[in-house]
Amino acid sequence: MTRPNLLILGGTGEAVALARAALARFGEGIGVTTALAGRTRHPGPIPGLVRIGGFGGSAGLAAYLIDERIDRLIDATHPFAAGISRAARVAAERSGVPRLALLRPPWRRQPLDRWIEVDSIEAAALLVERVGRCAWLTVGAGSTAAFARVNGVRFIVRLIEPPREALPLRCHQIVLGRGPFSLAEERHLLTHHAIDVLVCKASGGAATEAKLIAARELGLPVLMVRRPLREPGPAVETVEAALDWLAGLDGLAQAKRMS
Questions:
Q1: 241: Cβ–Cβ under 8 A, 6 or more apart, which residues?
Q2: Could you write out the DSSP letters of every residue in 159-175?
Q3: Does position 61 have pLDDT exceeding 60, yes or no?
Q4: Which of 26, 49, 126, 138 could serve as 33's disulfide partner, Cβ 3.0–4.6 Å?
Q5: 34 is in which domain, residue-wise?
Q6: Could you tell me the sign of the dihedral formed by the alpha carbons of 149, 189, 76, 205, in that order?
Q7: What local confidence, expressed as pLDDT, does residue 1 receive?
């Protein structure tokens, strides 16, 4: 009996948790490979096999799914990785491989939050100098270019690791850190740097939510970039639900009947 193969499109904590949980639940009954884009030079440990690098768009991913005999595809990428998710949907349709999206639960606005919601990073960049003079950017190194022409604002930029190239910001300081972050850590960062506005993507999840709680407590405005629309298709919000979806695989179902 050939064991089924799962490909996880990762780069998130949810993807790591899914790989770990799938191997814990199904053991050697399933092959698990997590694909990373390679943007982070030193990713944390990931259970199972790891593939680093792009596929060459939807056509390349479809070919990989067929060549590697992938039975199920789970898109557990970042909520703002719209291009990857689109390629995953198209590749799954071309190859006939069932696809599931593991969605990170969104943050819920609280009564004391001072969110200014915008539709894009560029819109946030146009507004930031009207809102504050020291802005905390938690949008990733790749999104800082939108703020390159902003004058009169000092940026505190938090990144997982040092950027490969100098950031295109006129006045900034880099702070390194890998979540999850505690509320005490976020309070300290905000007060230590005298930050008066937070700029972030509506990424959701618990790992970085503390910064929003700290901003709420201090009464600070938050420029919140809304999530892009997700790709159509089946989706769940928990690892357990994703495992239940996997449990219907032929090889796993047969293994269960034999055990």
A1: none
A2: ESS--SS----SSEEEE
A3: yes
A4: 49
A5: 5-105+229-258
A6: negative
A7: 57
Same domain, 150 and 220: yes
The CA distance from 122 to 119, in Å, is 8
DSSP assignment of 191-213, as one string?
HHTT--EEEEE---SSTTTHHHH
Give pLDDT, residue 56: 94
Checking if the pLDDT of 2 tops 90, the result is no
Write the CATH number for 219. 3.40.50.720
Tokens of 210: 């503390």
- pTM equals 0.89
13-26 helix and 239-246 helix, angle to the nearest 10 degrees: 40
CATH number, domain at 77?
A: 3.40.50.20
Same domain, 221 and 253: no
Mean per-residue pLDDT, 237-242: 96
Q: Is 24 in the same domain as 94?
A: yes
Domain count for the chain, please give it.
Answer: 2
Same domain, 242 and 176: no
Considering only CA atoms, give the Rg of the chain.
20
CA torsion sign for 65, 71, 72, 78 is negative
